[in-house]
Specification:
mainly alpha, globular, two-stranded antiparallel sheet, three-stranded antiparallel β-sheet, 8% strand, 40% helix, 216 residues
């Protein structure tokens, strides 16, 4: 049954990327991207760019572009998903690689043009759709001391290149990769795996030139 849920969530993610492809491409012309490409780094700009990828819970987006989702999230009927706190929030987009970690690492990265800047964010940022509210996972899943940081980019750390190791498995339901329809193994899943998934999502969005850059 969980595999079927993951496949259904994968179809939802694919539909979002197919629908929003041109809007995603237009990210390169936004003030947020211009600032990031010029190394005028602001956390809020990364968050706003994330929204364009469907990596937000608010409004009617409901984490629809997220490539990773917990079992509890997947098991919540669409009609019961709410990303707005004032209306009784039940879902949340968890920045598996926190925005503060991304902004520290984007400075000095190898980026030729604004397209490269967007692709850097896509391939280095990992987000997960999780449940929120009184019984949700959001506030209990991150390991102590890592609320605002990840060691996924820290050489010689056990979490290096393993973004999902930031989470305590006892604090959340299993996480699924809805692109592949597989359960995430946090000890094995790497940025290379994420990069492959982003290339697939960009293919769904008919952004074949970007997918080729990511796959190169």
């Amino acid at each position: 049954m969980t595999v079927e849920l993951a496949r259904a969530e994968g179809r939802r993610a694919r539909a979002f990327w197919q629908r929003e492809g041109e809007r995603i491409r237009r990210t390169i012309g936004t003030p947020q991207c211009v600032r990031l490409h010029g190394n005028d780094i602001r956390n809020i700009d990364v968050r706003h760019i994330h929204n364009r990828f469907g990596w937000q819970a608010g409004g009617d987006t409901l984490c629809s572009g997220a490539l990773y989702r917990t079992e509890d999230f997947m098991g919540l009927p669409e009609a019961e998903r709410c990303g707005t706190k004032a209306l009784g929030q039940t879902v949340h987009i968890e920045h598996t690689v926190p925005v503060a970690t991304l902004t520290r690492n984007i400075i000095g990265s190898d980026r030729i043009d604004p397209d490269d800047t967007v692709l850097w964010v896509l391939t280095h940022s990992v987000v997960t759709g999780v449940t929120d509210g009184p019984t949700g996972e959001r506030h209990r899943m991150v390991r102590r001391g890592q609320a605002r940081r990840s060691h996924a980019f820290t050489l010689d750390h056990a979490d290096h290149d393993r973004p999902f190791r930031r989470y305590d498995p006892a604090g959340h339901s299993p996480i699924w990769d809805v692109v592949r329809g597989e359960r995430i193994d946090p000890e094995r899943f790497s940025f290379a795996d994420h990069r492959e998934n982003i290339a697939m999502a960009l293919g769904w969005a008919a952004l074949d030139d970007w997918a080729a850059r990511v796959a190169a």
